Predict the structure.
Amino acid sequence: VEYGSYGLETPVTAQCFSTILGGGLVSTTTTHMSSTSSSASTTGTESIESTTSVSTSGPSNVTRVTSDGTRAKPMCSWLNTCVWDATTQAACAVALCQSSGFSTGTFVSSPHSICDVSVSSESYWMYITDHDEYHEGAYGTEAPVTADCFDIVVTGDGTQTKPLCTWNQSPCVWDESIQEECAVGLCGASGYANGTFVSALHSYCEQSHVDGSSWYYITSTDSVEYGDYGLETPVT
């Protein structure tokens, strides 16, 4: 990046993403999409049954999804404390996308704040922002959210953030459990909270992928290390 006077140039619009490694939702923001709602803060209480939360973590194909109140496309609401800012909007978008089967997503728009208006008095599936939970019920105020949803695909290339997968304690096992370990290790090294195994070039018990040293996720020790191992495989 340099400052100067050039003869030819153009402005570019890009969709940019950030991920947070942790136990909660992965908040993602984008530079070319803006919220149409203003911030609001309200307090209140309602009684509902508890349930489990669903959470996880460059996009591939982006799909635009809008809440309709079903379990796969929940509305966004709150229980005790209502805040409608960029962080809450991002959480609503991620919750919507993950309910629809995607890894994550970015907030596009909502017709109104979740703090001020109710869509109807009917019962809907909701993502509860201040509890990070999903519930079915009739809440005081809620909003449908539109989000751009996508899956994140990472493939090991032998770098520190995309390590190959190997082992260092016999016997070598290459089953579904180990494959999932390789996927989680790869995603963790890339800064994501979790991951799911898609494919591997071959079993890491039978063949080597590189000559010389490389970065590896080692299933035997659940660690990322630099070294020279005899057998390994790239995992997606």
The first strand starts at residue 41 and ends at 43. The helical segments are 86-99, 176-189. Residues 86-99 form the longest helix (14 residues).
